[in-house]
């Protein structure tokens, strides 16, 4: 069978399947932004956005934009009925105070302990943190959406981070273009594999030894 | 009898007394909720060696990027200094003309809220095990490792709100609220740039976000 890496959209769709109606979800930039496109119409997900929007809606249509209503990437968005605004300290109290059910974030590196690096490339002097550290630490669950290896083929799922740390022991699940991996106390558990790939294929591009789930499945997207 | 009146006639009058070396809290997230006209007035006024607190460093040459471009800001406390359009800050930082204190955004907001609330410092898990923790006291509470973060206050706070009255009560527009309410609390002299000034009593007391106790000066935007 053909080995087919998942597209960014397919990774997003796979993550959307793991959200539950009623979840309060914070979405980072990159692949995570795409997730809301794949949430079914019968699921009621409330999106939190760090600058003080709970109940963020779709991007604003032309003519509908308000420069005071933006997402974390500073693009104009809308508010859903039932949505509310809060100031930054309260908005981050939602994140830091363990009120957010799921944060879906991008990743540069994830360690086998669930440590996350996603704010600055190794060796660079100037980086931006924004809300990354607060949200990675404070969300009840952290899902990472990323490619399995970097553009240069570097391994991103590692034993120990060598990129600047965002937060320690914070990641619950890693969704890549090749696999779904759960971070458990005794290590990384391979739960699902993209169509056509073998366990060996995934292990070859994953530094820590993977624990193979008894119920290993093909990713359905 | 003299009525309370915090309204200033112009942006220039509202920033006239700001001296070199002042610390200023600048509200805003990206371009939302930024007191652009107050910043322009401060630029005309000329104060330098400003210690600035702002989530972002301003984009292109707008907002505090203009002050940075003219070397008026000597230190910036900020969570997101490096964005595509924040080239002014990047250049001055590379030239060594401005110092940076990088702070996670939630810690930044909380340090400001603490500053306005008489809390000198607090412990938080955010930043543990990262470069942010360097030099900070670490302690465990309830089995959770935390670092000590100190309050932030400003000699001034530049606030952008939607409406005010002469008592300084403020309401905001949407996510333009962001850092403004916490900064209003933490500024010794808080100056609010507003779209509209209404009579005392017109703002619904249930919807006032920043009560006037936290605001010293109010100026209406010219909108030019």
Automatic annotation (TrEMBL), chain A:
The keyword Transferase applies. SUPFAM superfamilies: NagB/RpiA/CoA transferase-like. The keyword Transferase applies. Transmembrane segments: none annotated. Pfam families: CoA_trans (PF01144). GO terms for molecular function: CoA-transferase activity. Keywords: Transferase. Belongs to the 3-oxoacid CoA-transferase subunit B family. This is 3-oxoacid CoA-transferase subunit B. It comes from Peribacillus glennii.
